[in-house]
Amino acid sequence: MRRERFTKIVATLGPASSSPERLRALFEAGADVFRLNFSHGTPDDHKQRVELLRALEKQYKHPIAILMDLQGPKLRLGTFAKGPMELKKGQKLHFDLDPEPGTAKRIPLPHPEIFKAARSDGLLLIDDGKVRLRIFAHTETTIDATVEVAGPISDRKGVNLPNLVLPLSPMTVKDRRDLDYGLSLGVDWVALSFVQRADDIAELKKLVAGRAAVMAKLEKPQAIEHLDEIIEQSDGIMVARGDLGVELPPEAVPPLQKRILAACRAAGRPAIVATQMLDSMVHSPTPTRAEASDVATAVYDGADAVMLSAESASGDYPIEAVTIMDRILKSVEVDPLYRRLMDASRREPEATTADAISAAARQCAHTLAAAAIVTFTNTGSTALRAARERPGVHILCLTPNLDTSRRLTLAWGVHPVRTEDAHSFSDMVQRAVRIARKEKLAEQGQRLVITAGVPFGTPGATNTLRIAYV
Q: Which one of 48, 69, 257, 425 has the largest count of C-beta atoms within 10 Å of its C-beta?
């Protein structure tokens, strides 16, 4: 199942994509990572999907990553006594903690954290920002606001307070319960919603305790203020553009996407661009040209992966969505401009042996027109360093660790294979050549650039570079 491209595809599973036949078709069409959205579905639904994916993994003898996405806290209005209500510009409203159904003048808002964070002249957004109010007075239990952008509101609509740090943990009781369950199923990545600061990720990492890699979803503007710290604390990043776009002006999101991806590459963290990438394909067999351009832009920006949400989870054309996304990625990656952008955005290696070896491996692969770079790794750090260099060839990652091989299916250009660690220099070369040929990454007469650590089997000791003929 060697992919012809470097950028990976994440497909969200749901009612439209959970049968054995659909999962197999998604995988064959190009899906590398499968996302379980714990905002929807039952525990039995998720368990069945994991079991089917693991069976698929055995059938194709290729690792598959499973990403569980925690729901996070949902800030919502209460209910209304007389159903939906149309707000008018200039109308004044009173919000409080009283659970009694709302009226035309007062609205229940059952979240004490919002009242603690509120400030005069602050914004209160309802229903993904479709309705906007300006706060003019507040206490620890009340908020008074004026409608600036009118529109309808109804029971349980979502609420956002842009540019405010809410005194709220991103881990709800439901999330903790779901996390325990997901880890018991053996998920490979855990994505955390509502991240505002690096401490949020640290809290999750303590709970995960190394059983999965941890991903921060950047969907709050407050997270951008602590971007470097969050990236440093995380194993991966998801650019959740839909949620970012609710609390930020639309024109602010594209530059942020580029900034986040550049920071992730510099830190060697895999990054996913997500939300509405091929949104029209929920009900259409083809995307708009603007959507195709959006996917392409993420690839030109250097994303490790792009993600399908409703397109593959509940849409009418999940297989077609993966197929077309695969075609877009391949089209970009053969464009000479793409290679020039990847080379131009490369950072200087850090003053470490592992970084020097990774940079040299890329240069050797380019100079010698090698077929692939081969990395021997336990933790995956060597493969991620190689991916950060964005070489012009695939990275064959050889690891004895099944968890590592699964997690690395998300990383740019990495083709992971589980195998024993090398025992000697001759075994290292023989094993690399044999597996590269078996995986169709190299042919007789081509060269491989091999990196490893000596003594063999020592994590984080990459200090050797070898050129081998196939």
A: 69
Alpha carbon distance 416, 204 (integer Å): 26
| CATH topology identical between 8-73+170-334 and 353-469 | no
Looking at domain 353-469, does it have CATH number 3.40.1380.20? yes
Beta strand 447-453 with 462-469: parallel, antiparallel or unpaired?
antiparallel
Q: Catalytic residue positions?
A: 35, 76, 217, 275
Extract the residue ranges of the chain whose pLDDT is less than 70.
460
* Domain 85-160, second-level architecture: Beta Barrel (2.40)
- Tokens 């069945």 found at: 48
DSSP code per residue over 310-331:
HHHHT-S-HHHHHHHHHHHHHH
CA gap 337, 394 in Å, rounded? 18
Query: pTM (2 decimals)?
Result: 0.94
- How many C-alpha atoms does 344 have within 13 Å on its Cβ side? 8
3-state secondary structure of 235: coil
The rounded distance, in Å, linking the Cα atoms of 37 and 208 is 18
Span 8-73+170-334 CATH architecture: Alpha-Beta Barrel (3.20)
Backbone phi, psi, residue 405, to 5°: -65, -40
Tens digits of residue pLDDT in 348-397: 888 888 899 999 999 999 999 999 999 999 999 999 999 999 999 999 99
Neighbouring C-beta atoms of residue 423, cutoff 10 Å = 11
According to DSSP, the β-strands at 106-108 and 271-274 are: unpaired
Distance in angstroms (rounded) separating the CA atoms of residues 222 and 163: 6
> Which bin fits 31, alpha (ψ -120 to 50), beta or left (φ > 0)?
beta
End-to-end CA distance of the chain: 21
User: What are the domain boundaries of the chain?
Assistant: 8-73+170-334, 85-160, 353-469
Minimal CA–CA distance to 166: which of 136, 124, 228?
124
Give which of 351, 365, 346 is closest to 268, Cα–Cα. 346
Rounded to whole angstroms, the Cα distance separating 186 from 193 reads 20
Please give the structure tokens belonging to residue 164: 């405010």
Token duo for residue 190: 């855990």
Are the beta carbons of 272 and 313 closer than 8 angstroms? no
Q: Which two tokens stand for residue 88?
A: 């008018």
